[in-house]
């Protein structure tokens, strides 16, 4: 049975002027058994993801491990092929592009990876790492290409002669700067940054976060910023999207993090070490471990861990509904819990 739509499309469609518009995005991984590779089930990693992003806007994406953040980020750049749904970028339906057109379109939508060690080819000099993308998307003469590489290196705080060196000659923070430079070298308008500082020493995390903040302003970049760290998300984001078991539970302006509406967001915030004197949050509500996305609960997927759930929560998937301007939540008990 296909899942019922769970988004108040009117609330989402009302967000005109969006650069990126994601509707009903799904990513299922088949579970196969036996020599014939028979499909015996599906991991529903992302289910019915709907949100939009304006130029220059940063949307933080949070949720506990396994909630589908990475899969969502990769699916919307088509680094993994979505199972269903729509990805619109500045009027283009990205899911309809063929392989060649998609390769060219990547210029507009880039990814910054978590692990700068794993994402840079150790056998290539920085010139070649950055130059490959430039050759594909912005072909130019050799000297123009070097000028472009020097300019982007400078933008991320590295000297121009860094282009002559190999990744192993740099520290972790510098390598992440190279990863950021690679993503930005083709002048994208939208970037997915997947835990871009979590592999770095705490001492250099703030420098890289500040760099992202500066670049976002200078380049008017829209960004989906995936992180476990709520303090980082608060600092960098305009809005925050909370995912649980592949579904969006709440999307709220960062200032509203002191007044979350969804029980899951409240639980997530109460588990965060940050003090928050403005709001008496629910203390940890999570009664058990995350259920398997191969066998999600019926109705509200969060209900099996929610202390406020009633029998009715098993009956229908809650609709993501606007509860205040720019603030959407998917819980059928919002009125009672307010
Ligand atoms: N290639 C894959 N094949 C099968 N299942 C997968 C695959 N990639 C991810 N999953 C599953 O999809 C679900 C969501 O995973 P995902 O990595 O997107 O979550 P996440 O929120 O990013 O977690 P983390 O914060 O730990 O990175 C998990 O149950 C994961 O095991």
From TrEMBL:
UniProt xrefs under InterPro entries: AAA+_ATPase, ABC_transp_ATP-bind, ABC_transporter-like_ATP-bd, ABC_transporter-like_CS, Oligopep_ABC_C, P-loop_NTPase
GO BP term, example: peptide transport
Record keywords: ATP-binding, Nucleotide-binding, Transport
Topology relative to the membrane: Peripheral membrane protein
Domain of life: Bacteria
A Pfam family matched in the record: ABC_tran
The protein's name: Oligopeptide/dipeptide ABC transporter ATP-binding protein
Organism: Novispirillum itersonii (Aquaspirillum itersonii)
